[in-house]
Amino acid sequence: ADQHRLLTAERAKTLAEQGFKFSSQRTRSGAASTIEKRRAGIALARSEINLEHREHELRASKRRLSMLWGSSDINYSVAGGELFHPIDIPLYETLAQKIEDNPKLIHFSKRQSAEKAKVHLAQAALTPDLSLNIGTRYYKTPQAYGMVFGISTPIPVFDRNRGEIESLEMRVQEIVAQQDHERIKLLAILYGHVQEFAHAKQSLHILQEEILPEAESVLKFITNGFRVGRFSQLELLDAQATLVELENERISAAEEMWMHAFHIQSLIGVNPFAAATDREKDGAAQKTSQGVSHE
What we know:
The protein is mainly alpha-helical. The chain has seven helices and two strands; from the N terminus they run ααααββααα. The chain has helices spanning 2-29, 34-68, 92-96, 103-126, 161-227, 233-268, 274-294, and strands spanning 131-139, 144-152. It has a two-stranded antiparallel ribbon with strand order 1-2. A hairpin with a 4-residue loop joins β1 and β2 (144-152). α1 (2-29) runs antiparallel to α2. The longest helix has 67 residues, at 161-227.
């Protein structure tokens, strides 16, 4: 995004230089006062300041990206990526089904399993251990031997494990409640990102397909009219500023679209673009097969 902001700042400076050139020509020919030229000089100076600011921002962004890659040096000139390429994600209902893959919910599930295992061990300790005794016995009177056997089991007069089991079961219920609360919270966050993603994508589409082409046309028209004195310098400066502002809005909309998409990915634990990519491939394959069948 910062690369595109730098390009926009460079274009703003080019437009300001063009305006300063036109104003200088008009001043020399006597068609305009020196105020017009001075006003154009101010606009040019401001564009140079903004360009320098964007250059510093880009260098800082490159440094941060290099550090994420494990390097303190900037070993690249341009970062690749389709910032303005419109992307698609599944519907909210489909994404919500994958919320169980969220690391926080997985953590709660593991804690539940551990506590349930403790409950099973404590319950197993309640089961009495049966003892079977078998042996022989000598009887003096009939002077004979006899077989003797017996079964013994402990009598649970006082059950010490019962309280522990109830405590463990309450702990499991507490973890389940915490997980349910976290699930509701994550689903609300997910819904918010899905809505903001849709808004950013729609804004990007309108800016690219409708507003920016119109702003380009208006600027071209006013620039040509300014040369022959049909429009004032203020109208030219306003058209230039509007175009630059809209271009920055386009960059911000694309940046927000990707940002919310990556937030969605972090919430559901899987790539949300996979389904859209598969649909695009299927659509391309279908078009290809249809084209072959018509030959």
